[in-house]
Amino acid sequence: MTGTADVAQEASNRPRDEFSWGHSALRADFAFAADGTPRLVGLDRPGAVLGTDPEAALPLVELTALGHGSGWSGPRFTGTALGTRLAYRGHRTGSRGDVKWLTVELHDRDTGLTALVELTSPGGVPVLRSRVRLRNDGPEPLVVQSVTSLLVGGLPSPDDLDVLRARNDWLAECRWYTEPLRAGVADINVDVHQHDSRAALALAGRGSWPTGGHLPMGALTERRSGRTWLWQIESPAGWRWDVGESVRGTYLALNGPTDAEHQWRVRLAPGEQFTGVAGVLALGSGFDAAMGALTSYRRAVRRPHPDHTALPVVFNDYMNTLMGDPTTEKLLPLIDAAAQAGAEYFCVDAGWYDDSSDGGWWDTAGDWQPSRRRFPDGGIRAVLDRIRERGMVPGLWLEPEVVGVRSPVAAMLPPDAFFQRDGVRLSEQGRHQLDLRHPAARAHLDRTVDRIVGDWGVGYLKLDYNIVIDPGTLAPGDLAPGAGLLGHAHAYLDWLAGVLDRHPRLVIENCASGGMRMDSATLAVTQLQSTSDQQDPLRYPPIAAAAPTAVPPEQGAVWAYPQPAFDDDLIAFTLGGALLGRIHLSGHLDRMSQRQLALVRDAVTTYKAIRPDLARALPFWPLGLPGWTDEWLALGMRAPDDRMSYVLVWRRGGNPELRLPVGHLAGRDVRAEILHPSSAAAGSVVRSGGELRVSLPRTPAVVLIRLVA
């Protein structure tokens, strides 16, 4: 986490009956169970009634190690033998800037293992972040197979809770769905059996696409009150969470990779240590409130960068436009048109390095030198110069971690610079995977980026990643492939930080076939996140509407690809869907009529007018989280003081009129104004009480509304 040096701390090494920690928006209460282990017995806002029975709470850490398994077998990652042996040694508290921290030290006398539970929370934000650092203070090596990131017990009964998850597939990202927790955790009548259920509702992400399949997130909502516990796991590789019944309540366990599911193990020799990935829990009176808190947390802990407040408009030549086939002839008129439309960055996407006559660059990429065939007059530098002459910052696409099997780089770098298993270099779709822990791999990428950014003057890099490696790599020193994968993923983030240290104005977009690496650990380093590769403008709205659940709006790149063949309604539709995120403009603007280009320019002008508000706005969903086939969808952004709100509404079918609740403005004098589209005939909005009546007579249709209190 970012912050200044510690400014205060206190220490205690004597067990007490209980202690508390927190700030104005969060209070955590701890008490000791009969076995002497400290437990988190309350987590809420200050002033709330707290106090779970310590015997119903969970230890602060659960872990498994070879020779030290579970105390109660089953699919859970709770009830471990080591978890109840980690005795309290003391705790310290302090602050780094606005971030409050608490470290609790635990120790197992049998093995000599020390566990440091590191809790942090930004001041004024009801969010808890937890990670565990393990240190072997014993005389013998210890092989760790799993370690929790965050454990919370004593939540309401599974009878009263719904669980939310988010499927995240290629071209269909951020699809949240809800079901009663009891649908996955049956009531077995605990009183009869004198044991908790072994069952757990578990979800895991595997491979080098950490968000391929599902987002590393979830939520529990209390059905009667709406109270919500929302979490994310900050892992750039494997992760797992599970929820289940414990002492008639509900528990939540967040983990990074594990041996059972990710082939992850680490051996700690005497004196060695390992730090797990972080788990984060946000609290709220409802899902929207919890997501608002999580959005504030994400902003507080990411790497500072001017892009987060500037929000420049990016034109990218790929989507539904050049599609990986750029040439000087095709790019120059597109650059001119993008500048006329108001773009501030212009990114040349895939293919700029391809010198093959058949476009077969997939398995030859890796040296990242510009094509002479595609850019015959003045080379690619002439194209980059044209971008600058038109007042835009030039950008290039790069897929840094892969090397094609036919690339000369595949033979130039040493074997250990690539992913391998059993001494065999791995290949996936005609590509090898670099291991960024190896100095030769890192040096190769440093030379590449320093040439592109430092010598060519490129100010924007779109970093893509289009293969997935599962379960990982076994480089020399790796105990298991999952550990190799996590090691590489952390080294990749460290490499990104080094690039930004050397080039602090550089803007980096994170992409992996769209949103397949949309994890919060990567988003804390990079400036933008590709939300999808979806090419159908009618299928993008549910992705755009739900993207702020995964990424703050000012980082979520949403494609807007109007085409000259579109009618005015469809041009407005595809542009409007990006206005509450980061507008990523594409499309054959150079082939548009002046009237059509004016429609594009109007939308971009609207975006530039509202973007200062987006950089601090919090998302909400007036119709609830979007469904993939919903005919009406809505996304809102509200200023922290609620004086200004924006609501984006899509209609893909159904009745031409909709009543839209905006509860946070009920009872207030509010002015509603349509910002997009500029055509008065596109629709109408009438405010009444705590709702809006939106009329969109044609489909597809979109409307952006500003609400001023």
SSE blueprint:
Layout: E1 6-12, E2 18-23, E3 26-32, E4 38-44, E5 63-65, E6 87-96, E7 99-107, E8 113-122, E9 127-136, E10 142-155, E11 161-169, E12 172-180, H1 190-193, E13 201-205, E14 213-214, E15 217-222, E16 228-234, E17 239-246, E18 249-255, H2 259-262, E19 266-268, E20 273-275, E21 278-284, H3 287-301, H4 307-310, E22 314-316, H5 318-322, H6 328-341, E23 345-348, H7 379-389, E24 393-398, E25 402-404, H8 409-412, E26 420-421, E27 424-425, E28 431-433, H9 439-455, E29 460-463, H10 481-502, E30 507-510, H11 520-523, E31 528-530, H12 541-546, E32 556-560, H13 568-576, E33 582-585, H14 594-614, E34 618-620, E35 632-638, E36 644-651, E37 657-661, E38 671-676, E39 684-688, E40 691-695, E41 701-708
Parallel strand pairs: 22-23, 22-33, 23-24, 24-29, 29-30, 30-31, 31-32, 32-33
Antiparallel strand pairs: 1-6, 2-3, 3-4, 5-10, 6-7, 7-8, 8-9, 9-20, 9-21, 10-18, 10-19, 11-12, 11-14, 11-15, 13-17, 15-16, 16-21, 17-18, 25-28, 26-27, 34-35, 35-36, 36-41, 37-40, 38-41, 39-40
GO molecular function, one term: alpha-galactosidase activity
Protein name: alpha-galactosidase
InterPro entries: Aldolase_TIM, Alpga-gal_N_sf, Alpha-glycosidase_related, GH, Glyco_hydro_36, Glyco_hydro_36_N
Primary descriptors:
709 residues, alpha+beta, Beta-galactosidase, Chain A, domain 5, TIM Barrel, Immunoglobulin-like, 3 domains, twelve-stranded antiparallel sheet, eight-stranded parallel beta barrel, 14 helices, Alpha-glycosidase_related, Glyco_hydro_36, hydrolase, glycosidase
